Write a sequence for this structure.
C-alpha cells in the first residue's frame, strides 16, 4: 500500500511528456545534435569556454577562451545564451538583478545513470524481458533493458537511472567503482546473480560534469518566464527556459522563440 505503484509507476508512460510512442533516433540521442551540427558546419566553434558576458553600448561583448587557451572577444548586437543555469550563475556578467536572480533560482536535478555490459543477455534468456523498464524501490530507481540486438551474445543495460535529490546526491558523491558496486547490490533482489553477469560498467553523475552541473532544471515557471522575456541584448534559450525541462523539444522550442523575439526587435514588428 505504501508503494506509489498505482499513482505514479503504472501511469508513468502515459504522462504527457513520457508517451510510449516517443521515437528513438538511430544511433542514440546525440544523432539529433550531430544532424544539426552537420548542417550549420563551421558556424560552431568547439572547445571554447565563455568566461564573461558583458553589455556594451546596448550590444554584447563575450569574452571566451579558445581551444589553445588564448582569450578572445566577440562583439554582437544580440546573444542567445543556452549555458545551463548552474554554470551560468557563476560566469561574470552584466545581467539585470532580476535575470541573475532567475538564473540562480533554477535548481537542477541530480541525475545519475549507470550502465553495464553483460556477458550474456540474461534478462532475455532467463526472464523473457525484451526492452522496457523495471521500477525498483531502491535508489537505482529504474533498470532499462535494450530494445535492440535481441538474442545477440552480449548486451548493455542501464542498471540505474536516478533523478531524485537524495539518491542522486548519494550516488554523485561516490567514486566510479563504488557506484557500479552499489548499483549491482541494489539490482540483486530483482536479478539474483546480476554482478557475476557483468563484464564492465560505466556511470555518469551530471552534478559532477563541469559544464552541466546537473541533469535538467526542476520545474520553475517563474524563473523560466523571466528568462524568456530576455534582458536587453541578452536572450536565453535551452530547455531551462521552457515548460519542457529535460527534453530536447523544450530546447528547440526555446531556440525558435528567442530567434523570433530578436526578429521582432530588429524589424519592429
Ligand atoms: C540523463 C539525461 C537523459 C535525457 N534524456 C533525454 C531524452 O531521452 N530525450 C530528450 O529529448 N531529452 C533528454 N534529455 C534532455 C536533453 O539532453 C536536454 O533537454 C537538452 O540537452 C537541452 O539542451 P540545451 O541546449 O538547453 O542544453 P545543453 O544540451 O546542456 O547545452 C548546453 C551547452 O552549453 C555548454 N556550456 C556550458 N558552459 C559553457 C561555457 N562556460 N562556455 C561555453 N559553453 C558552455 C555545455 O558544454 C553544453 O554543450 C536528457 C538529459 C539527461 C541529463
Amino acid at each position: 500500500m505504501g508503494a506509489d505503484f498505482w499513482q505514479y509507476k503504472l501511469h508513468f508512460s502515459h504522462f504527457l511528456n513520457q508517451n510510449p510512442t516517443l521515437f528513438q533516433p538511430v544511433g542514440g540521442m546525440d544523432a539529433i545534435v550531430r544532424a544539426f551540427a552537420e548542417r550549420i558546419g563551421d558556424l560552431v566553434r568547439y572547445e571554447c569556454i565563455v568566461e564573461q558576458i558583458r553589455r556594451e553600448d546596448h550590444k554584447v561583448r563575450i569574452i571566451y577562451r579558445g581551444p589553445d587557451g588564448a582569450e578572445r572577444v566577440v562583439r554582437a548586437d544580440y546573444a542567445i545564451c543556452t549555458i545551463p543555469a548552474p554554470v551560468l550563475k557563476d560566469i561574470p556578467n552584466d545581467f539585470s538583478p532580476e535575470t541573475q536572480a532567475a538564473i540562480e533560482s533554477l535548481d537542477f536535478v541530480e541525475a545519475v545513470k549507470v550502465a553495464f555490459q553483460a556477458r550474456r543477455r540474461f534478462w532475455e534468456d532467463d526472464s523473457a524481458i525484451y526492452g522496457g523498464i523495471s521500477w525498483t524501490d531502491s535508489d537505482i530507481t529504474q533498470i532499462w533493458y535494450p530494445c535492440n540486438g535481441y538474442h545477440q551474445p552480449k548486451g548493455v543495460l542501464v542498471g540505474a537511472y536516478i533523478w531524485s535529490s537524495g539518491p542522486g546526491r548519494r550516488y554523485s558523491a561516490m567514486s566510479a567503482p563504488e557506484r557500479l558496486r552499489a548499483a549491482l547490490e541494489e539490482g540483486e533482489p530483482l536479478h539474483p546473480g546480476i554482478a557475476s553477469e557483468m563484464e564492465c560498467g560505466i556511470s555518469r553523475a551530471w552534478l559532477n560534469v563541469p559544464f552541466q552541473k546537473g541533469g535538467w532544471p526542476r520545474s520553475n515557471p517563474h524563473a523560466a518566464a523571466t528568462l524568456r522575456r530576455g534582458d536587453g541584448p541578452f536572450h536565453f534559450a535551452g530547455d531551462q527556459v521552457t515548460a519542457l525541462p529535460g527534453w530536447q523539444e523544450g530546447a528547440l522550442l526555446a531556440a525558435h522563440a528567442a530567434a523570433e523575439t530578436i526578429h521582432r526587435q530588429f524589424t519592429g514588428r
Summary: The chain has a mean pLDDT of 94. The domain at 30-107+220-267 is CATH 3.50.50.60 (FAD/NAD(P)-binding domain). The chain is about 30% helix and 20% strand.
